[in-house]
Amino acid sequence: MYGKRYSKLKLTLKLVGVVVLLLTLSYRPVTTMRLSPLDPSSYANAHELIIRHVDLDWTVNFDKSTISGTATLQFKLLKQDLTEIFLDVSDINVSSVEAKSSAGEVPLDWDIGGTIENIGSKLTIYLPTKTSGDLTVVISYETSPKASALQWLTPEQTFGKKHPYLFSQCQAIHARSILPCQDTPAVKFTYNATLRHPKEVTGLMSAIKVDSEPGVSTFRQKTPIPSYLLAIVVGALVSKPIGPISAVWAEQEQIEEAAEEFSQTADFIAKAEEICGPYVWERYDLLVMPPSFPFGGMENPCLTFVTPTLLAGDKSLATVVAHEIAHSWTGNLVTNRNFEHFWLNEGFTVFVEGKIVGRLSGNASRDFHALHGLSELSDCIKTQLADTPELTKLVVDLSECGPDDAFSTVPYIKGSTFLRYLEDLLGGPDKFEPFFRAYLNRFKFQSVMTDDFKQMLYEWFREDPKNEVLLERINWDRWLYGEGMPPVIPSYDRTMLEACLAHASLWAENDLDTIRASPLLNQTLVSVQQIEFLAQLLEKKTIVDLTAEKVALLGETYGFTTTKNAELRFRFVRLYIRARLMGKMDEILAFANSNFRMKFVRPVYKELAGWPQARPIAIDNYNRVKDQMMTVCAYTVAKDLGISDIA
């Protein structure tokens, strides 16, 4: 059934496979080509046809750890006389493919091939005649128990201990493991879904629930979304209202704590609308995830997923919710066309997040938020990306690298810093925010590239001839393709930061007696300043007398040994590693095993890998807990440890 073109691809991929076997331990993953004209990580021929709507009929099978059912894909053809459809799949068992017509459903020939590790495969659907216009295809299939987008938890892994739990994480390219699709953000579609699940649990999706009865829930998403925003969760969940259009969902044991922690949600939404324009998604609910959720948050429309590590008890980490709310415009409404331009999602979102913080807490807080981000960026470049400086570019090349391999703080912080630089250069918020809202309005419901943003920026600001000299100052090449830290750091208000730097210098440069006698210890740091203080301390090349006694005093002085704040605990256990305190290994691993948020576990494992005596212990621990991690987390941590087999 394979044509010549397909046979050549198969041969190429076989040759690639040989190279991969020889280079198993190298950084480069397994792609050595751009898989399609629009997206290097997608096989989809989205330049020839696009999915406009999807109808899902899914049954959740906890006994088999699979989802089975049908996906009905409604295509709009962009090319006349089409003979083949290319879709992305990953470990999906397809049983039939049919075209809908006025005469009924017509079986279609299909095959799956071109498998690339950590990318997926190509489902080729052969059309019986040259096709034009619109087309509807029904695919019956079942997911794999190892589908990379799905995490199946036993009752014992939940708070309630009574019912199993399922959740998804499709970003960046994992939607292809739960349905055959054009798994590229270049394509957006609406969807309806019927979800069948055990009667004892609740089903939710990234859509509005339109009906439910025990064991069956139906959903509608009327605003077009890219495939990575498809989301599902099934578990013993309850909800509590936290605003006019918002509720928080969690297991019963966490619901009150979560409702209190995220009580500012309505304020965040109001400020975001001031900055970005009307909110179009009807609902903004939050779901507190199990500890195995690999990210801080995921901006699934109508139902943001958030890590339980945000439950600090003092709302100090709730700005992550402001970030996810901002995604309702930057990312969800206006989307990067592929993940080489991920900064158009994340840099823009951090920029809006900072503005929300500034409107609620003042510009000093906004600037401190940005400065803390720069500390995290510096740490990321020196640790996670130390061996891959090409991934510190704002626009990366994914021809030989998957989006999961490229994921880092860079598009977030370097991207938002670029936008702040542009705002300051072009006249400040009064001048820049009207442009920003107009950009979001022009490109809403679309997918864009960096050149789209650049072109509109020039069109907008060139209306005033005085801006021409300012626009000429922008070194786009350095900002977009230069490696390392941002080429220009804006003039931020450093008031809140200076206290953090003073505390970091005190502990890095002095012995215990000097520290104990310092009046600086009488100065109170709020939670966000404590986080930055520890970040700055970790940045120091040398720390005088970094002993168990000094680390213990540090913990006692600031309460780091008893805090619930995961950001503080994360940095404090890294000091244990820096001090080579083997006696604290149980505490280090306890933190690493308490959650599988990649922001936390990757640096911990990477630094343990650089400690020869600790590396075998870290690998043993990883092998014990890796099945509790989502695939994206297990895969990247294995790389950080320098091991290749995560099977």
UniProtKB/TrEMBL annotation:
Zn(2+) binds at residues 323, 327, 346. GO terms for molecular function: aminopeptidase activity; epoxide hydrolase activity; leukotriene-A4 hydrolase activity; metallopeptidase activity; zinc ion binding. Keywords: Cytoplasm, Glycoprotein, GPI-anchor, Hydrolase, Leukotriene biosynthesis, Lipoprotein, Membrane, Metal-binding, Metalloprotease, Protease, Zinc. It catalyses: leukotriene A4 + H2O = leukotriene B4. GO terms for cellular component: cytosol; plasma membrane; side of membrane. It comes from the Eukaryota. Its cofactor is Zn(2+). The active site is at residues 324, 412. One of its GO terms (biological process) is proteolysis. SUPFAM superfamilies: ARM repeat, Leukotriene A4 hydrolase N-terminal domain, Metalloproteases ('zincins'), catalytic domain. Signal peptide: none annotated. It is an enzyme of class 3 (hydrolase). A peptide binds at residues 169-171, 294-299, 597-599. InterPro entries: Aminopeptidase_N-like_N, Aminopeptidase_N-like_N_sf, ARM-type_fold, LTA4H, LTA4H_cat, M1_LTA-4_hydro/amino_C_sf, M1_LTA4H, Peptidase_M1. The keyword Aminoacyl-tRNA synthetase does not apply. The keyword Zinc applies. Its main location: membrane. Pfam families: Leuk-A4-hydro_C, Peptidase_M1, Peptidase_M1_N. Residues 495-641 form the Peptidase M1 leukotriene A4 hydrolase/aminopeptidase C-terminal domain. Pathway: Lipid metabolism; leukotriene B4 biosynthesis. Binds 1 zinc ion per subunit. Belongs to the peptidase M1 family. PANTHER family: LEUKOTRIENE A-4 HYDROLASE. This is Leukotriene A(4) hydrolase.
